[in-house]
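Hi P.,

Sorry for the delay on this. The queue was packed all week, but I finally got your sequence through. Input first:
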Amino acid sequence: MEPQTQQGNGRRLVKSFETLSREYAGGRNYISGDMIVDQLTELRKALATQGGAGFGDQTPLRLENLDATMTSVLFQASHLKLFNSIPRVPSAQILYQWIRALGYGTQRGNLGFREGGVAQTGLSSWIRGNATVRYLGVKRGFTHQVMQVGLMGGAFVDPVAREHRDGTLQLLAGLERNILFGDSLITDASGTTVNYDGLLKQTQASYPSSIFDMHGQPLDFEALENYTERLVRVGKLVNFDSLRMFTKPRVLSDLAKLKIHAERKMLGTGANTPGYRPGTPLRGYDSQQGYIPFEQSIFLDPVDDGKVAVDQNGNNVAEGASPPAAPASATVTVNASDPASLFDASFAGTYYYWVTAAGDGGESLATAGNAGAAIATGGSASVAIPATQYATVYRVYRGTVNSATDPNTGWIANVVPSVVGGAATYTDENTWIPQTGIMLLLNMEEPDLAIAQMAPLIKFPLAVVSTTIEFMLMLYHTLAVKAPERVIIVKNIGYRTAEVLQ
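Then the structure:
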């Protein structure tokens, strides 16, 4: 029955269910709201605990109140440290270029010359560096229906504003990881180059001696002194005002433990004895060369926490809107002798491998290798990954027990197939140790390190072909490591306690 309305004095009157029922009955017995509630049969139906499919849960009627405050244990904008710290420079073209001075002239020749003679000619040297601007973004959307609910006040958050915010954080979190782990060899599904090389790959290519391997040993203050001394000696860095250190939270916790042990004091116990609060938060380190402020980051892994994706129950899951299928079981082969092996006596043992396929739409479930690998000192393991449709990169995880979700199991490699969806092979020589830390010392000056940005964050509306209103959030930029001598990357940092935190 269509709702009846009455126009009067320019006002629209919407009649209640009670009024409509009386008019429909013509003054005879009508159905009132009170009569419905009084019907015992109807009340029993309302209190039934067996609900039909698609009609909510199977609990009786109950009073409900939806809290207007959303509980969130997700990262916030304040967690994005690298992207917010690196200087931005404009790039008017797709190819961003810079000039790097290599020398004023040789200092190995003789400066003296004879009377009436002339000094030797000095020649400065330069090199031109370049990086290609890439287009990075995410596609998001909201339905017209949920937008209407929000406009009428039926949602406890603004769904449109929330979608914009969530999409921006998704994009920036991906960029935060790309700044460190970006790899231009990882293409899109069509095989087109769409990514830039991050700090690791650019530094490895141009100045590999700036990358240090702790090989499972913890970081200490003596090591920090060595790194800062190298920045002065090799990087010719005198002013530390723009130098910053980024590392994982547990690495900083380990440094704090060193400080506690070095400065331990007895707590006051008497009634008149002033107490002492143990522990001092480490905001930075005052080295012989200059002060280094500390920043902790949760994004210093190529994937979240360096582990396979899991649900709230700790089970491995695929992640993303349309991830590739999980690869078939990889074939693991032990190499008894490998000249490049970093498996020393402390790392000899049996290891288990898992492989996931990742593409434009996400990452697949992890597939176990065909067998564990007993790797001896000086050996290695080859992991042959079968072809997987739509895979643009394979991620290899390694553990010491046969469980992909064990706390000790973690990422060790990104393996890029020669063609999208093709087979690939990775040789594990222990160059990356799972569940270890990483530390970066970066001089945040535009001549040394910069993000070349061709446009600010852009919202790009997409064609509306349904009641889902889609849009893209995009950033056009690239990373330029101009002075790799002033970059220090320390990987495979071990922890001081054997406890593995979930």
